[in-house]
Write a structure and sequence with these properties.
The structure is a single chain. By secondary structure, the protein is mainly alpha-helical. It has 3 helices and no strands. Helix content is 68%, strand content 0%. Helix 2 crosses helix 3. The N and C termini lie far apart (49 Å). 0% of the residues are buried.
Length: 85
């Protein structure tokens, strides 16, 4: 079976897609099944790390969009200043 993605680099890990394809439960239910009830330290740790990762990922994506926008604007200014077509 061909697998792809960065998640393969982390031992004993599963991607969200893999969890969705192999189970018919939500991510929250999967966390409960794997790490226990909401009040267990393991569940709290995993939930906190999941939220932090989501925030970091969204921030990174936003920065990349801003960078791409700036690069397009700078490229446009260079094009206009140099007069080249």
């Amino acid at each position: 079976m061909l697998q792809c993605g960065v998640i393969e680099c982390v031992p004993n890990s599963k991607s969200r897609d893999e969890i969705g394809k192999k189970t018919d439960i939500t991510l929250h239910d999967y966390f409960h099944k794997t790490f226990g009830d909401d009040d267990t330290p393991e569940f709290q740790t995993v939930r906190t790390l999941h939220i932090e990762l989501a925030v970091i990922t969204n921030y990174y994506e936003l920065q990349m969009v801003k960078l791409a926008f700036r690069q397009k604007n700078v490229g446009g200014v260079d094009f206009i200043v140099s007069g080249e077509t």
